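Incident log, structure service

09:12 report received: a user says their structure output differs between two submissions of the same chain.
09:20 pulled the input from the user's history:
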Amino acid sequence: MTKKLMFVFAHPDDETFATGGTIVRYARRPDCETVLFCATRGEAGHPGTPALCPKEQLGEVREKELAEAADVLGIDRVILRDYGDGRLREAPFDQLVGDVEARIRREKPDAVVTFPPHGISGHPDHQVIQHATREAVARLGNVHQPFLYYIVIPQSTGIIRAAHTTPDREITHRIPVAPWRREIMEALRCHRTQHLSVERVFPGVLDGDWQLLRTTEFYQSAGKANVISSTELI
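09:34 re-ran on a clean worker, output below:
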C-alpha cells in the first residue's frame, strides 16, 4: 500500500532548508509519495547580491527555483499558492485553513509536516502557516486525520542560526538523512536568488561541500503519530 507524506510551508526554499533530507528519504521509497503545499511565491525576499533578477520578477523566478529543487528532492506534486510573501497574516485565515484542509482531504496523506508554533526563525509567515495547518488537521476530525509533525531544531545542537529551538525532551522522532546530504546540497543550490541565506545557514554548500550538512532531522509530534518507530514518520 502506498504511503503519502505532505509538507506544508510558507515560502519556496522552506522545504529544503527545513526538511530536505526527510523529503528525499521518503521520495526514494517505492511505496511512498511526497506532496508540498507552499503558501507564497517568495516575492518579498532578496534577489541576491548582485541581484539575479529584477525585484518585480522575484516571485516568478523563485517559483522556477522551487520547481527545480522539488525535482532534485523527488517531490511528486507541488501546490504553489500566492497568498503574499510577508503578508500571510493579512490573508483571510479561514480561507487559508480551508485551502490546506481541502488539499489534505484530496491527497489523504498519512502524515503532515509543518513548522512548530514559533516558526523556528520566528518569521510571521512560518507561524501563520503552522497555525493554519494545525487547524486544518483538527477540522478533519476522524474522517482522515493524518499524523501531524513539527520540524524542529533541538536545543542540544547549539545551532545559533535558529531563533527558536525545542527542548530535547519534546522531540519524538529523529530521521536519519546522512545518505542524502548531496541531494540536500543540490536542492539548496537550486534556490539561487537566496544564495546569501544558503551560505549563512549552510556554509560551504555553494562551493559544493556537503560534508557539514545535518545528518538527522528532528520532529515533534503534534497529535497522532507513529509510535512504532521513532526513526520513521509513517
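09:41 both user submissions now match this output. Likely a transient worker issue. Closing.
09:42 reviewer note: Residues 58-73 form the longest helix (16 residues). The chain has six helices and seven strands.
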